[in-house]
């Protein structure tokens, strides 16, 4: 990923992972040196003070989180940021793409992450694809999952189901009725340090295909971060 020809933002992400961020060309510029800007996105950020400020805000929040998260959280954050940058550059090809809104949403998302989250599964967990929300419902637990792939056709996954907790895992949609409605598909949520890992559970009889609550080539799999408030989908 970190190779010659990569975009400046992606190269800086790799530098951040190694702990070596180059100095900015100007104090009011973005987090990267505009003299080395190559892509359309990088040049647009350099040309607009408001976009430059948003880029600095994202970089500051990202570095602060890297210093505060545990090892699984840092690994997940680097992957999430890489996905955001790749999705941003792809979406920039759209005529209706709003770079300022995208950067604003990303900054707000990073700033909302709790590096030392509460115990259990309650609350909102977010990543570049969407949200997982857990709450008590009577004597049980309810989970709402909403994700969207940021490209190419924006397929979604939407699931509202009960959750059964067992140690550090929570099985979503495991009741007999829910399994019947969802063709046997469930979702396993696992607490892994500061993150919540989500994994689709394929029924034995379903060798191919997707669950009925997910669009084609969409998935829920991935690591989510505890956030202070619902942030929608920061990738859009």
Could you explain the architecture of this structure?
There is one protein chain. The protein is of the alpha+beta class and 236 residues long. It has two domains: 34-112, no CATH class; 123-226, no CATH class. The chain contains six helices and eight strands. It has helices at residues 8-18, 40-47, 49-68, 71-91, 99-112, 176-181; strands at 123-127, 130-137, 140-148, 156-166, 169-172, 186-192, 195-201, 222-227. Strands 1-2-3-4-5-6-7-8 form an eight-stranded antiparallel β-barrel. Strand 3 and strand 4 (156-166) form a beta hairpin. The relative contact order is 0.14. Mean pLDDT is 86; it is low at 1-6, 14-25 and 230-236.
Task: Please tell me what the overall shape is.
Answer: globular
Q: What helical percentage do the residues reach? A: 25-40%
The beta-strand count equals 8
Which structural class do you get from the secondary structure elements?
alpha+beta
Distance between the termini: 23 Å
Tally of alpha and pi helices: 6
Can you tell me the number of structural domains? 2
How do the strands of the widest beta sheet line up side by side? 1-2-3-4-5-6-7-8
